[in-house]
Amino acid sequence: METSHTLAALTSQLLVGLSRAMILFIVSSGLSFILGVLRVPNVAHGSLYMIGAFAAHTIATAFDGSVAAFWLAMFCAPLIVAGISLIAERLLFCHLYEREHLMLLLFTFALMLILGDLTKMTWGADYRSIVAPPFLQGSIPVLGTAFPRYNLFLLLVGPLVAVGLWLISAKTKFGKIARAAAVDREMVGAIGINVSWVFAFAFVLGCLLAGLGGALVSPTISITLGMDHSIIIEAFLIVTIGGLGNIWGAMVGSLIFGITQSVGVMVLPQFAIVFPYLAVVVILTLKPTGLLKSVW
Amino acid sequence: MIKDILRTPSFLWTAAVLLALLLVPFFAGRFYVYILAVVFVTGLLAMSLNLLVGHGGAYQFHHCVFYGVGAYTAGLILAKTSLPAWLGLCAGPLAAALTGLVIGAFCVRLNKLYFGMLQISLGSLIWIVALRWYDLTNGDDGIHGIPMPELLSGSVNAYYFLLIIVSACLALMYLILKSPFGATLRAVRDNPQRCEAVGIDVRRHQLLAIVIGTFFAGVAGVLFVVLEGSVFPDMLFWVLSLEIFIMCLLGGWFTFFGPMLGAAIMVALRTFVGSYTDYWTLILGVVLILLIFFLPEGIMGVNFRSWQRRRERRRSADDVR
User: Fold this and answer.
1) What is the C-alpha to C-alpha distance for residues A271 and A89, in angstroms, rounded to an integer?
2) pLDDT tens digit sequence for A147-162
3) Best mutation target, B103, B107, B117, B132, to test chain A (most A CBs within 10 A)
4) Can you tell me the distance from the alpha carbon of B88 to that of A296, in angstroms, rounded to the nearest whole number?
5) Please, are residues B226 and B85 in contact by the beta-carbon 8 Å criterion?
6) ipTM for this model
7) Which of A52, A138, B9, B171 registers the highest number of CB atoms within 10 A of its CB?
8) By the CB < 8 Å criterion, does B269 face chain A?
9) Domains of chain B
10) Considering CB atoms only, which of A99, A111, A233 is closest to B124?
C-alpha cells in the first residue's frame, strides 16, 4: 500500500514536472532561436513572456471568459507580443547588431526595465488569473493519480511547438537563410538577401514564442509583476545546458529543469529549486558547451 | 614610482576631491552624507566589477553574489555570534574571495557566454540558500538591526569609516592595475591566444583577478552592513548584477574612476527621480538605451579620449616646432 502511494505521488510529480517543462521549453526555445540566429542573449525575453500572460488575461476577461475568448487570447496574446518586439527591433535593435555581446545584453536589459515598467503602468500590481475552458478543467486518472487536463493539454502543445520550430528552421527557405546569415552575415547579404529583415523575423519569431509561453501558462499560475525575473534566468540556463541555439537542446534542458525540480519537491520541499541549478552545475562542469551540439 | 604618481595632475585632482569629501559632513545635511556613503559602497562594488570586466575581460555576470556573501558573512557573525566585531568585518571579504575562488575555478575553464551562464547558476545556488534557509538567514525578510561597534555607529562615523576604507581599496586597486599583473591582465583581455603562446597562464591570471575582484566586492558588502545595519537576499539577485554593469557602462569601462561616477549617477537617479515617480526604472532604461547609442564608452571614456586626443595633438605640434 505504502509503495503504491509513493509511486502514485511520484507519477503525479513527474507529470507536473513534464508539463512545467513544456512551458519552459516554449519560452526557452524562442530564446535559443534568437541566440542561434542573432547571437544575442535577449534578457527582455522574460518581460515578453509576462506581457503575453497579461495580454491573454485582458483578452480572455474582455469577453466574460467564454470558450472562444480563451482561444482568442491564446492566439492574439503572442501576436501582441510579436508586434511589440517588431517595433523594438525595427526602431532600436537593428542598429546595434555590429556591437559586442555585452552591449547587446545590456540593451536587452534596458528593454526589460522599460517593458517591466510599462507593464506595471498598463496592468498594475494586482494578482490576476484566467480560467481554462470547461473541457480543459478538472482532471483525469493517469496511472492511479488524478492529473489536471490542462497539464495534459500542455504536454500536447509543447512537442507541437518543437516540431513546428524545427520544421521552420530546418526545412523552410527562411530557416535556411536565417541559419546561413547567422554564420556569415555579409556573404548572405552579398547574394542579394535583405539580412536586416531576416534578423527581424527571427527575432520576432523568438519573441512570439515567449508570448505564447506566457499565454499558455496563464491559467495555471497567478499572473503578476515579477514573473519575468524568475523565468528568464531559468530559460538562460536551459539554453546553456542544452547547447546554445539548439532547439532540441532547449527541449532536453527544459525536461531536466522541470523534472529535477518536481522530483526535488518530494525529497527536500524547502530547497526544491536548488536541484535544477545543481543539475546545471553538474552538466556544465562535465560538458562545458552543453549536452547537444551548439550552433556557435 | 610613488614620486611619479604624486606629481601627476590626476593625483592632485584625487587629493582635492578626497579633501572635499572629508569636509562634507561639516556643512551638508545628514541625508546627503548618507547618500554619499551609499555612493561609496555602490561605487566600490562597481569598480570591483570593472577590474574584472573592463580590465580583465571576464564575463562576470553574477558579481553581486560576492557582495552578498561578504555582507551576509559579516552580518551573521555580528548578529548571531558573540565573536569580536572586527573579526566579522574582516571575515566578510575573505569569505567573498573564497567563494570567488571556488566559483571562479569552475568558471575559468569555460569561454565567454558559457562562463557567464555557469556563474549565474552557481551564484543562484547561493542566492537560494540565502532566500530559503530561514533558520540561519531569516529568508526573504533578511536580517535587520545588526549591532555595530560604538566607533562605527552614527551616520557621520560610518561615513568617515567608509571613506577611509573605500579610498584605501581604490588605492590598492590602482596599484594592482598599474603593476605587471595588471598589464598582463589587460593583455589577456585583448588577446588570450597570444598570451597563451608567449607562456602566460591565462586561466591562473583570470582566476587571480576573480579572487581580487570578489575580495573587493566582499569589502563593499561589509561596508553596506556597516552603513545600513541590515542584509537581505535581493543583494544576491541577478538583477543587481546587471545594474552594476550599467554603472560601469555609464561611467566608462576602460577608465579607472568611471564606475564610481556611474554608481553616483545611478544612486542619484534612484534617490531623486525615484522620489517623484514609481517608474524610475523606465527612465533608467531610456537613459541606458541613449547611452548605448550615443556614448558606448561611458561618460569618462569620452572625456578621457577627447582629452587624450588634445594632448596628442599638442605633443605633435610640439614635435613640429
Assistant:
1) 39
2) 888 888 899 999 999 9
3) B117
4) 45
5) no
6) 0.83
7) A52
8) no
9) 2-320 (1.10.3470)
10) A233
User: Contact A290/A241 with Cβ under 8 angstroms?
Assistant: yes
8 Å CB contact between B67 and B217: yes
- Provide the residue type at B78 as one letter: L
Per-residue pLDDT tens for B193-235?
A: 888 888 888 888 889 999 999 999 999 999 999 888 889 888 8
Give the contacts of A188 (CB within 8 A, at least 6 positions apart).
A177, A180, A181, A195, A198
Instruction: Give me A17's grid cell.
Output: 514536472
pTM for this prediction:
0.85
Q: Which of B112, B124, B289 sits opposite A107 (nearest CB)?
A: B289
Answer for the pair A49, A228: CB distance below 8 angstroms, yes or no.
yes
User: In angstroms, how far is the first alpha carbon of chain B from the final one?
Assistant: 31
Q: Which of A99, A240, A285 sits opposite B106 (nearest CB)?
A: A285
Pairing mode, strands A139-142 and A145-148? antiparallel
Chain B partners within 8 Å of A290 (Cβ) = 114
Is the Cβ pair A233, B238 closer than 8 Å? Answer: yes
Reference B93, options B225, B229, B207, B182; nearest CA is B225
Question: By CA distance, what is B126's nearest residue in A?
Answer: A274
User: Is B281 in Cβ contact with A271 (below 8 Å)?
Assistant: no
Cα A157 off chain centre by: 13
How far apart (Å, rounded) are the C-alpha atoms in residues A207 and A83?
9
A140 three-class SS: strand
Task: Identify whether the C-beta of residue B60 lies closer than 8 Å to the C-beta of residue B48.
Answer: no
- List, in order, residues 6 or more apart from B204 with CB less than 8 Å away: none
Burial of B2 (0-12, 13-18, 19+ CB in 10 A): exposed
Number of cross-chain residue pairs from A and B with Cβ atoms under 8 Å apart: 109
